[in-house]
Amino acid sequence: MAHILVIEDEPEMQRGLKDNLEFEGYDVEVIGDGKKGLDALVKNNFDLVLLDVMLPGMSGFDVCKNARAQGVAIPIIMLTAKGEEVDKVLGLEFGADDYITKPFSLRELLARVKAVLRRSPADRKSSATKITLGLLEIDLESYTASKKGKSVSLTSKDFDILRYLWQHQKQVISRDDLLTNVWGYDESISSRTVDNFIVKLRKNIEKDPSHPKHIITVHGTGYKLIP
Prior knowledge:
21% strand; 9 helices; 2 domains; four-stranded antiparallel sheet; 227 residues; Arc Repressor Mutant, subunit A; Rossmann fold; alpha/beta; 12 strands; 42% helix
């Protein structure tokens, strides 16, 4: 049974998320404060976090950023009442794996939750290897990375993208391929999501991110990984 942490302060939304997720068979813990949510996230073993942006105590952005800085790699889906692109980009830059904008349909939320949880630890370990890509040393089994001997904070989605690109190195991989095989669902998502993750990965991998040599853009199509 997957253990899901919901960090959300609106009582009605808390009840709705808890009731529907438990109906689907998940074990759900709900916390309504950002600081308390971060503490629980760091200290406990969850499989997934649903994280609201607007929270008392600490914003969802700061919860996400601090969790990643402390080495928490479990998937985080951010819940935002705003639809502006800047909020989505900020969430991804701070380490979120995905975002969903309120109001959202229950079907859409469950699809995203199931897509993340579908990638079980066993599935991840079966293809895990230690690799070096540019400046970054990556352990795909332990979900850790380092650069010049210093730990680098990456999200679980970052590792999943790197694994997929590594398994298909020197091949042109479209954005749709990445959305389907990494995100794992068919809901309509802007390809900008993929681009944002690639931009962040390049900052850790490339000596000159503006002129990448390892994750190459194939204009009009997608990306190619060159070891």
